[in-house]
Amino acid sequence: MMTRVMQRMRRGRRLHAVLSILALLPGCSTIDSVSSSLLGSGPRTGQPGYVSGFLGGVAADEPRAVIAGREVLSAGGTAADAAVAVGLTLAVTLPSRAGLGGGGACLAYGSGEKGPAHGVPEAVLFIPRAATGAGGDRPSAVPMLVRGLYLLHARYGNQPFESLVSSAEQLARFGVPVSRALARDLSVVAGPLFADPAARAIFSNNGVPLAEGQTLRQPDLGSTLAQIRVAGVGDMYQGALAHRIVDGSSTIGGPILATDLRAALPSLSAPLVRNYRNDKVAFLPPPADGGLGAEAAFDVLANNPNDIPAAVARSLGVVTRWRMGGVTPAAAMASPDLPQSTSTIYPASTSFVTMDRYGDAVACALTMNNLFGNGRILPGLGFITAASPAVVPSPLLAAGLVWNDNLKAFRAAAAASGQSAAPVAVAVGLTNTLRTNQPMSVPVPDPGRANIIACSRYLPGESRFCGWATDPRGDGLALGAN
Fold first, then answer.
1. Are β-strands 349-356 and 56-60 bridged in parallel, bridged antiparallel, or unpaired?
2. Do 58 and 73 meet the contact criterion of CB atoms below 8 Å apart?
3. Alpha-carbon distance 374 to 395, whole Å?
4. CB 210 within 8 A of CB 161
5. What residue segments make up the domains of the chain, in order of their start?
6. Cβ-proximal residues to 33 (8 Å cutoff; 6+ apart), any chain
7. For residue range 201-233, what is the model confidence (pLDDT) as tens digits?
């Protein structure tokens, strides 16, 4: 006992000596921060507030998802950690466009030796694919979101994955105010959506669509997220959750087989890359062919930033040529005689971008292949499955990222939604940001909506030259700290 007391006294004298020396230094902030560290007070890694000063930034189409991403950055998480939190939160707060039953695609960049690809972007593809089960009046896509975000996290994250699930879980379980973005989508599809009794119970008040600011509670979704947090992502594809998805899918219009879930693997792919002055620009590759359309539009705007009509025509023409088959992306880009777009309506999507204090960045586009997917909630699981791409056209998932290969440093990232205008929105957002060094300096063409983060002096570098913006005509939010 005496030995432990003497050890405590010695530690106390050492701490007193350190603080006495610090007291001789100018200012008190150093004393406060060091003494907090020594005494064990203040946030620790994994807790919001752990990082002070420059955090990075987040921009997305729904405000609460942005707040979730910024909290992760504040807790010391990477851009990928923040992206996982944003994506899972969107599954709760904007289930019309993102959900556990949907999917998407992301571009991820890790600066220098920090990134697994050593300063070169990667594409993480987890696009909802058609289930192979036959029959049903509303075929479902195979859920891809959770495995896709898990792969992104495995490559670039540093926070425990389960900690990134818990925030979305709590929002689903205890409720969250309906955002303007969700209220708008509900007003569009309330009629057919409320034909499903489970959807009507969640998204309406006695048959009247929930309005902005009213509380959205999704206890079954909260329980599903809790199961993923506790049992792991694999449970959704090969465990108890997988069995419940298989059993429930046949009751909502289109069966999903156990083999579909086991085979639902995301993939890593090299992005489409082109040079732009001293930098390189990466775009999502097919099958996320909105990235191909964005590259085609960027090709036009890099030479003439004001020729929006030509950029739109070339973007949709290249995508249409690619979807006709028999060509590589490069051949579609080089085709002299492009067909007119065969589709005037592409499914809805949502987008977001994240960047951390090191210059790691992620740009994602998520989709349900239709507003609210197939419109029916899996019994007891609380989420809607995406519409099958066998019965609806694939969305144009569009994102782009700019970096300097010599410096191994990030410069800009953009992701966009807006059906057929999403690729052009990315191209316009990036070209104008690179020309003016200001994100969202010029509005993107309607109905496109973009989210952009940019660092005109690169990052790692001078963080005071970084900025983030969401489309002012949309209902999103952009947050960070310099």
1. antiparallel
2. yes
3. 15
4. no
5. 65-175+217-271+341-481
6. none
7. 999 999 999 999 999 999 999 999 999 999 999
